[in-house]
Amino acid sequence: MESLTIKAFGWLGAALIAIIAIALSADQGFAIHMAIVAAAALLALAATLSGADYASVARGILKAPVDTGRYDDDPVRWGVIATVFWGVVGFLAGLYIALQLAFPVLNLGFEYTTFGRLRPLHTSAVIFAFGGNALIATSFYVVQRTCRARLALPGLARFVFWGYQLFIVLAATGYVLGITEAREYAEPEWYVDLWLTIVWVAYLAVFVGTILKRREPHIYVANWFYLSFILTIAMLHIVNNLSMPVSLLGSKSYSAFAGVQDALTQWWYGHNAVGFFLTAGFLAMMYYFVPKQAERPVYSYRLSIIHFWSLIFLYIWAGPHHLHYTALPDWAQTLGMVFSIMLWMPSWGGMINGLMTLNGAWDKIRTDPIIRMMVMALAFYGMSTFEGPMLSIKAVNSLSHYTDWTIGHVHSGALGWNGMITFAAIYYLTPRLWNRQRLYSLRMVNWHFWLATVGIVLYASSMWVAGIMQGLMWREYGDDGYLVYAFSEVTAAMLPMYLIRAAGGVLYLAGALVMVWNVWLTIAGKLREEKPMTETPYDAAADRPLAPQPAE
Known about the structure:
The protein is mainly alpha-helical and 552 residues long. 71% of the residues lie in helices and 1% in strands. Among the domains are: 1-52; 220-247 and 257-368. It is built from 19 helices and two strands. α7 runs antiparallel to α8, α9 (259-294) packs across α16 (404-433) and α10 (301-315) runs antiparallel to α12. The termini are far apart. It is found in: Cell membrane.
């Protein structure tokens, strides 16, 4: 009873503070955000006072099995659904802004629907809402199975999930309202940053607490990558978002850094958000789900150790390659380039380890569309981690910088690597979390695979062509020493590429909608009657595996 009273007064206090902040707010955007916070606190208060077993209610709505006590999978199930939902939102926003580039009339003449407001909405929805929920859900699932222990601090685990959803809503509404710090991938204002810090520390506590109570002596490699991602993102987020609010009752703040130091801090954060959020975290997913789906051990544990420590050490230094040919000192640019080139080898170490884990299960690429997705994800990871170091070379960067080539590079990694491995993880998790015999339809997974793959190829290849064309047209001079092409001419020349990119986005979104339907019917307990994926079933004897490499 005492605990219930403390919780109720805590939520009531949070709601009252938010309501007072609305009344005294310095700007409209801050008032809107405080209204969202007040609504969330009042909902939590109502849930606390009602005394209802909302976990059981949620299980009933989601058709989830009864908790057996072995593992705490409720936050994982919620995370899977949130991942699917935010993925569709992010892809839809991306398609819309892709169409805006081809048809500017789609800006609609409203400040809230302009490209400048919707672009960060798209990037954050895909990276932090889709990717972040996938990482939180899979990390909670993996750490329990590999440690043979339930989640530590179950109440805090639920706070992490719901607190993260509140962060997403505050960030997204802030972008549309124009409340941002104008820092790429770190746009939310100071009070939203503070809230994310609280949620992230809670996430770290749950994850580390579960490892500490493990009943398995060894800490599996996937947990190394998850822990490095959680710790490093915390450090990056705190340092990059150091700022001074103009008012404690207003949304505006100013960075603690200025000039070239501000730029370097931003891209130290920006590049390592890619390195630890979109790489280390998703490598953790790869190291668990690829062996499980292939039913084979990790090919080389020794390689995973080398891969982990070299990646962790090298990635943190590579940020300056985003600032080639700027006011950043030349030695710092060169340092970033050198470390970026060195990153190629540990990155490919992870790709090779993932692909070689299929030793003895190569034939499953033909018969299992989930394995096919994983292989495609690893292929795009390898391609992106070769292209990235190549683009960091100053001679290449002189052509690619500020062009759509960079956009193509980012999306081949985000859609090909992060998207595909997340889709595969969702397809792996859904029947297991809901105790279903299998997915509703494997053939729909195959459709999703091909829609996504063709969509990525159209998107990335069109941006590669557009970017190289941009770079060449921008720097072409005539005999009189003047630029040959005006900016408007370059933009007009890229229209066909923008249309192809939008077509790729349509296909990728269509694949995601197929996934929504497949996951929903799997949760509902339905099975589609369908023929096997191939005429000849998987034949283990047809594979000729290489000998696995032990850790010692």
